[in-house]
Amino acid sequence: MRRTQKWVASIFLSAAMVAPLGAMAMPRPQDDHERHEQEEREQRRVYDTEAREYHNWDANEDRMYRQWIEERHREYVDYDHLNKHDQKEYWKWRHREEKHDHQ
Predict the structure, then answer these.
(1) What is the pTM assigned to this prediction?
(2) What burial class does residue 93 get, using C-beta atoms within 10 Å of its C-beta: 0-12 exposed, 13-18 middle, 19+ buried?
(3) Do 30 and 63 have their domain in common?
(4) What's the pLDDT tens digit per position in 69-98?
(5) Residues with Cβ < 8 Å from 65, sequence gap 6 or more?
(6) At what angle do helices 59-71 and 84-102 cross, to 10 degrees?
(7) What is the pLDDT of residues 16-66, one digit of tens each?
(8) Are residues 48 and 98 in the same domain?
(9) What span, in angstroms and rounded, lies between the C-alpha atoms of 33 and 10?
(10) Distance set, CA 70 to CA 36, 60, 75, 82 (Å)
(11) Do residues 64 and 91 make contact, with C-beta atoms less than 8 angstroms apart?
(12) Which of 36, 58, 37, 55 is nearest to 45 (CA)?
């Protein structure tokens, strides 16, 4: 009987020592939230009111947007903070550039 008690005690002690490792391996809710925010940024879509269509805002679109800002000698402002007139102007320019690139 004494041997059984030692065996059971060692199993419980082992489990108690291993349990914190398992808890650290589980994703924390914060990690899921940060991953979700990153995915949203990578899959961001913006609406073009002139063409009445959505565009994926990816690294290429961001590069083109920065080029548009630079050509106008403006300081960087996030697209979402542009007024509606400037957003329309960007998409007009962007569609012209797109046609120019495909020729």
Answers:
(1) 0.57
(2) middle
(3) no
(4) 999 999 999 999 999 999 999 999 999 987
(5) 79, 90
(6) 110
(7) 666 666 666 656 666 666 776 666 666 789 999 888 999 999 999 999 999
(8) yes
(9) 39
(10) 31, 15, 8, 15
(11) no
(12) 55
In this prediction, residue 58 carries a pLDDT of: 92
Name the average pLDDT for the chain.
Answer: 80
Residue 97 and residue 54 in one domain: yes
Q: Report d(CA 29, CA 6) in Å as an integer.
A: 38
Strand partners, 55: 46
Contact 68, 94 (CB under 8 A): yes
Q: Which two tokens stand for residue 73?
A: 């000698």
**Which residues span the domain enclosing 29?**
2-35
